[in-house]
Amino acid sequence: MSLMTMIVKMSEGLGKTCAIFFLTLLFSLPLGMIVALLRMSKVKIVSAITRFIITVLRGTPLMLQLLAVTYGPYYLFGTNVARNKLIPVVIAFSINYAAYFAEIYRGGIESIPVGQYEAAEVLGYTKLQTFMRIILPQVIKRIMPSVTNEVVTLVKDTSMAFTVSYQEMFTIGKQIANSQTSFMPFLVAGAFYYIFNVIVDYLMGRIEKRLDYYS
Amino acid sequence: MKKILSIALVLMMVLGLSATAFAADSSPVADRTTFVMGIDPEYPPFSYLGDDGDYTGFDVEVCQAVCDLLGWKLEIFGVNWDEKLVQLDSMECDCVWSGMTILDTMKEAGYVISAPYYDNTQVLVVKEESGFKSSEDLAGKVVAVQLGTSGESLLNDDLADLAATFGNVITCDSFLKCFTELQGNAVDAVFVDLPVAASYAADHEGLLIIDEALGAEQYGIAFRAGDAELCEAVDAAVQELVENGTYAEIAAKEEYVDIVNNLIFLNGTGAEEEAAA
Question: How close, in Å, is residue A164 to chain B by CA atoms?
């Protein structure tokens, strides 16, 4: 098999890799905000439960969570295993990344001085207005570097979908490596991930620059 | 300068440590004290984690007997099956001996392969309730195969025509996942080695094995290129076990009832039988 055919075959799986990446971001970014707000809730029991869930999601390997979401329902309730693996994969990734994003958001929100809330109250802002117009814009600015970190990790983590037999780029690479007894597909996969991440890095850098409106 | 030197020293020490962490032994056969057997720990009845938590299986027991005979200490190393030859090359084990199908590509790549010891065929496992009776019924259906197994390479090469009639072939990284996909109705059939199918079907109800003698092949032991002497020593030891009856004794155990009829050293090969008839 020539290098060209290898690249063509693997790029067929690249679409599925991208699907995991974009769908995970689409769901986990907003979900993370909800989790962060629950985590900071003044109701003790709510914040305690959320905190527990976050420790479980951050304290167990993503690979196990993928297996649990994909095969767990079958073993527990005897339901069918999903034929389209994209659904369980995106669910598992979104929940896991939401936990990380939630902690990043929380760090950002808590870094805003209390004085700003007090000032907003004096100026007659409601709580929602204060959060949406004053706090959130500053939070987004501050957390961008940490979010970029997670997004870059997500690109590489998509390869983990092979554990539940989702035929994304890395799975196809492994199949070629086997049938050709060659290490080449792994180099190709590495190059693919690297290029993907260079693009992500560039875009995130652009966004960061855009947000840097005071300098 | 001093700093660079000390960093270099630390690096060398770390690398040195990791080098000694490799278990395999490259010393000549006569001086050898340990033998690292590379197995797929999820391949019953040839090699698997037994009820007591230790690795066991037909291959493991034979290897233990070989090591006893040659005075080696047996160490067992669980390989990542789809990377087994890389792990063999990188000295993580001295051989791959785990129901491994002998492929022409291995010989072409220079690996030393032992005398074949098992005749194998690939079968399709379906759910009884699905009503599938032959490979033709599976046209347009989804079939699962384990990554890195001979079943996978067969579907890519010799049985590509059959694979083309399937709707889709998906690869799982363990045979257990293949079967879970089948039980959970995510796939319609699993393409797998007969002994694995038999042992799984014995433990789980409602499965049907479709045996159409697809992809007849043989199992052997793989050694690194250049380890021909080691291969000969192991082959000779196995022959001695066959002659003194130990081999038959191991094969007679209840766990191995599914494979005993296909052991070449006890039954001759299928090809020989045909020639005799």
Answer: 7
Task: Tell which of A181, A182, A183, A186 to mutate to test the B interface (max B CBs under 10 Å).
Answer: A181
What CATH code is carried by the domain that includes residue A100?
A: 1.10.3720.10
Each residue's pLDDT tens digit, B258-272:
888 889 998 876 555
Domain count, chain B: 2
Query: To the nearest 10°, the Cα dihedral for A191, A194, A199, A200?
Result: 140
pLDDT in tens, A102-120: 999 999 999 999 999 999 9
- Measured CA to CA in angstroms, residue A76 lies from A70, B14, B70, B193 at distances of 11, 45, 48, 28
Chain B residue numbers touching A75 (CB-CB < 8 A): 180
Instruction: Write out pLDDT tens, residues B137-153.
Output: 999 999 999 988 888 88
Which of A175, A176, A186, A187 has the highest number of chain B CBs within 10 A, making it the mutation to test binding with B?
A: A175
Write the ipTM. Answer: 0.75
Q: Check if the beta carbon of residue A177 is closer than 8 Å to that of residue B105.
A: no
Domain that holds residue A17: 3-211
Give yes or no for a contact between B211 and B194, defined as CB atoms under 8 angstroms apart: yes
Question: Is residue A71 within 8 angstroms of chain B, CB to CB?
Answer: yes
At residue B157, the pLDDT reads 84
- Rounded Cα distance, A215 and B155, in Å: 61
**pLDDT (0 to 100) of residue B269:** 64
Beta bridge partners of B48: B42, B56
Mean pLDDT within A118-132? 94
pLDDT value, residue B68? 94
Print the domain residue range for B128: 122-216
The Cα angle at residue B11 between residues B7 and B16, in degrees rounded to 5: 150
In a domain, B242, yes or no: yes
- We report the CATH number of the domain holding residue B192 as 3.40.190.10
End-to-end CA distance of chain A: give it in Å, rounded: 53
Which residue matches tokens 């929100």?
A109
pLDDT at position B21 is: 42
Q: Total domain count for chain A?
A: 1
Residue ranges of chain B whose pLDDT lies below 70: 1-27, 269-277
Tokens read off for A97: 């990344």
Does residue B227 lie in a domain region?
Answer: yes
